[in-house]
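Hi again,

Forgot to attach this to my earlier email, sorry! This is the prediction with S-adenosylmethionine bound. I've pasted everything inline since the attachment limit keeps bouncing my files.
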Amino acid sequence: MEAHEEETATALTSRRPLPAPPVELREHAGRMPDSRDDPEETYERLGKVICDHLVAALPETWSFEGKRVLDFGCGAGRVLRHLIPESGRAELSGCDIHRPSIEWLEQNLSPPLNVFVNGEHPPLPHPSGTFDLILATSVFTHLVETWSAWLVELHRLLGEEGLLALTFKNRGSFEGPARAAWHEDWDEDQIGMHVYGAGLGWDKGGPAVYQSQWWLRAHWGRAFEFLHLEPESVGQGIAVMRKRPGHFEPEDLEALEPGEPREIAGLRYSLRHARRESAFRLEQVEGASERLRHRNDQLARTRAALERSRSELRREKEARERAERRARGLMARLSGRLTRQLRALAARLARCGLRIARRRPGRLS
Ligand SMILES: C[S@@+](CC[C@H](N)C(=O)[O-])C[C@H]1O[C@@H](n2cnc3c(N)ncnc32)[C@H](O)[C@@H]1O
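Structure tokens for the complex follow:
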């Protein structure tokens, strides 16, 4: 860090409160619970709670001294900002695919944070073994297709015995599926990795990925040793894992666990629900297109009625203009006839020796 950057970082470290990201970036990290509280304060408080729980779940021997930490999928830094007090003794980095969040962090909290935009797929540009601790809050809870590729990439990026602390969705965050009438309740033995809302955009919260604990231990456990696994903590579960030695490919983590009957049960559960969910979404889409068709018909009828009134108005206007033209012609002819008669009368009077005064009408001179 350059000297002037160090000064800025020190100033920022002691500055409270830190600048808060705008509402659209705060909401990119997840909709805030409806509350009358100050939304900035809620964002700050939630981030602090998550950060404190993650740090508390690290091994007792953990210290930030001299460590390199990455917050993978950091958003606008809801969690990472609470590690800024550690920036004097640890190097703090954050990355995300969401450019606006990273740009905000660059402009407001960097330094001390090193932040960068990453692609949707691995790799990150760092050499193997760069980080001592990687955090990922509410990120693997949305990775449907790329979870295994990212997990092995984070494994590569961790140094020997490096730690991965992340959140996962389990029974404690099942409120979305639980609200869907067609969805079955949480059942740890019937669920492996289960996706709800596949294909939903980030603006709608993105897809939600659920994992049971046995499945995490079986699949993630191949590349990492679980040190802490808590299914319900900060709304989501928390897992802290230590990197196992070796090299792993995504398929190594995806392969079914031999001799584990819950794998088949989990796949059946997911397949059943994928069918129900697609039927439900299809019905929603059909309902929406039916409503749209109805609106379009209404619009077409209104447009036709408007066109009819417009032509009626046009016809009335033309008839009025014709009547006005006729009235003007009539008036012109009438006044011509009248003035002709007056002129004839005046001539007759003149011949009789009388003159019609021009200046004073009505008086004889
Ligand atoms: C629910 S938000 C959580 C953000 C942040 N960790 C927090 O707790 O406030 C999920 C974040 O993961 C990011 N994300 C999704 N896929 C990603 C990927 N492949 N690499 C990095 N970030 C990703 C999203 O852009 C989003 O910022």
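The first strand starts at residue 68 and ends at 72. The longest helix spans residues 261-351.

That should be everything now.

G.
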